[in-house]
Amino acid sequence: MSGAPVVHATAWAVFAAFFVLITVIGFAAARWKAANLDHLHEWGLGGRRFGTLIIWFLLGGDLYTAYTVIAVPALAFATGAYAFFALAYSVIANVVLFAVIPRLWNVCRRHDYLTSADFVAGRYGSRRLALAIALTGVLATMPYIALQLVGMQVVFEAMGFGGMREGAEIALVVSFVVLALYTYTSGLRAPAMLAFVKDTMIYVFVVAAIVVIPTKLGGYGAVFDAASRAFEAKGNSAGILLAPNQALAFSTLALGSSFALFLYPQSVTGVLAASSAGAIRRNAVLLPAYSLALGLIALLGYMAIAAGVTAKGTAVVPALIMQSFPEWFVGFCFAAIALAALVPAAIMSIGAANLVTRNIWRPYVNDAVTPAQESRIAKIVSLLVKFGALAFVVFLPLEFAINLQLLGGIWILQTFPAVVFGLFSNWLRPNALLAGWAGGMLLGTGLSWSQGVKPVYVVPGLGGVYIGLLALAANIGICALLTVLANLRRLPIPTDATVAADYEDPLPD
To answer: Residue 341: which of 83, 494, 144, 111 has the closest Cα?
Structure first.
């Protein structure tokens, strides 16, 4: 029978000091770029006034989360090179950001759209299709927020707070109550301001880790040698080089994930908060700095092997930090990871709240809602989303949240035809898009479920393929076929609220 966990008081003290600082900044953010937060575009999008630098930090804080810092090295620890698909997809996603998302910003700015579902409703004249996009976004977001809590949970456990229902849930509840309060008060301004602190701390942690830990282990040559020997001993596909039978799964995961990344509500919220389409393009050029950091973070998995870390899964990175640094710096690193959970969780809850308010409440409950009522509803929904995610972690098995998040990536990818194709053409019919969405959702969920809720399906004669892409291919096929049939029958075309010029950058004065 194991004894009580050892509480690391110095690490806790440093962690607590940074948490207090974070809390103060979160509440103070309400007065940053002061405006009337009783309007949803101010509370939920920061008034669309964030320039290049702020958006760079905001998107970095949004896309590179605590679970990323915890899970990517853990996957590298277990499988080796396969984990680096995350690095590949983050690079490809920047191409999508540059080529596609400025068009979304332009049309949303001109029509005062706050969500991707707002755009879909205007483009296709279909409330049902917009509802499907909104529900998919909320469904995909909830377990994503829950997994940010997992990142915080393993940090609390490493510092000696105990596991779930042993004390860690108290720290999680306190953290998320504070997060909920300053998000309610400050809206998107809070995570935008906190992203400066979060990203700076993460970079300090990463730089320290890639310098100090390999030095202690005899250099990177020793790290890679140790990892290679460990993977060879396992005798499976794991290795520091990608195995031939992993290539297709690796490439399709990277491609599909890159298509999905900027469809998530938190990503849409981040980019629509930009002050211009140019700020988004400049970020597509600058964001690869985060991809570099992600690749370095993944190497922590190899360092953990070389360091003889015996922990498994999400506990790998905290265990490596604990045995590599003095306690005061451990507290700093764990505070950085906790902040990497709080910032994305805030943006995710705001993105989900915007969808519920604009695309569910407003059209189906009260279409005469005032701006102040709309903002108040969004604030309340953001609270419900956060505490719903908290309930995921506290009351349900961790595996449940992880499985739903894997499904979430497959689900959000099924909004690609309506949103991305819609930015370039309105040829696809709304009913066809709705049928394609439904078919993609059913196929993706069914295939994933048949594999034990895994993201890859083995296609005979090909090998492993990302299920999200298979479902998307079926989705697009259904959309195209039904659109052709509708055109042959000369069915009426719904009114498009947008015109071609709406998608282009405004002409200079």
So the answer is: 144
SS3 content of the chain, % helix, strand, coil (to 5): 75, 0, 20
Contacts of 263 (CB under 8 A, 6+ apart): 116, 137, 412, 413, 415, 416, 419, 420
DSSP class per residue in 15-46: HHHHHHHHHHHHHHGGGTT---TTSHHHHHHG
- Write the pLDDT tens digit of every residue in 375-384: 999 999 998 8
Q: Which amino acid is at 236?
A: N
Helix (H/G/I), strand (E/B), else coil: 8: coil
Please provide residue 236's backbone torsions phi and psi, each rounded to the nearest 5 degrees. -120, -155
Q: Which residue has the tokens 């998302």?
A: 101
Which domains are seen in the chain, by residue range? 9-27+40-98+126-405 (1.20.1730.10)
pLDDT tens-digit series, residues 81-134: 998 988 899 899 999 999 999 999 999 999 999 999 999 999 999 999 999 999
pLDDT tens across 208-229, in order?
999 999 999 999 999 999 999 9
